[in-house]
Amino acid sequence: MADVNFSLNVFPNIGGTATEFKFNVKEISGYGFDALNYTVKIDFDQDGTYETELKNSASVNHVFSNNGKKIINGIIKIGNSEFSFSNTIFIVEPQLLLAGQQRFIYEPQIYNTPKIIFTWGGDDANGNHALHMMDYDGSNRTCIFCGVEGIDIAEMHCGLLSPDGRKLIWDSTGDIVGYDFFNSNGDAYFIYDSKYYEHGKIFWSLSGDKLFMIDNDSEGVFYLPNNGSGMKRNVVDYGEFISPVPDQDLQIAVLTESPESTQDSIKGDLKIFSIASSSVVKEYKNLPAFGSFRVINGGRKLFFEKPMIIYDLEKNKANYLWFDEIPFAQHSEGDSDITIEGDKIIFSVFHNDYDKRNLYMFNIPIN
Question: pTM of this prediction?
């Protein structure tokens, strides 16, 4: 049977009453779509079969009930010819509500850290932002610097705890600063002027002795020791998004938009660079998503924020994540993170009905 160039995006409706699937059918071997009608048939594990005829279009939206939460297979039919495909949507459960309902709670961070770090606005009467820390079960929540003399909690963003839990860095009104919990005179120390890096795109190396950043003047990814000395620029080609590579402390993954992207299907090209040799180790073309991402599961998988996908680099397969009864459409890019093992995900979701955000954590099936 001929191959089908087919992708599936999942957009749960607000309230969890229905699920919208967007089909992007770009090419079937031997056929074009300018003047063809074709049929898409979806088989659900619980919900039976849905069939619809599509006319003169390579992209269409349809809404199904959410009783069938796992797509097992489907068929595209043109005339007497049928072309099969398969996709899987994982049901992610159970959920854990963290930190209660808050007006401003965002920028959660759990990638390669022993604690959950997040930003909460409104810690005092002036509405200043502050960094909070808590355990993975939601306990022992503390405002890290509230009431600490010499530390200004106003406008604290993008808190990143080092892998050993000893140091914290954050973006403070334009500067990257750090704090050593075990060797400090009580003051934060300056690391880097953030006018030279792109806001929010900074990571610890796996060992915690370096920081990776993206330069905002497009000169490339660079790294520097976590005390701010010895900066090195132009380590790799410029990319819009970066991530460390698990189990490979001197490797960095760089994502750029693929030339194969279209208005209906935005794709990314991934390069994994060796910092030691300044060379490309691996390269992957036309990934099913483009945007903020993390390399997880020992470097074998990627997590994309929008749409939420776990992509297996070895199997060349995208698994879409479904969070039951969560108004997924109101999760914005930058408000989620995933563990380095890929077994837990945390994200902040805005709720219109009470004008608050909730911070959720979910367990993800690894397979």
Answer: 0.71
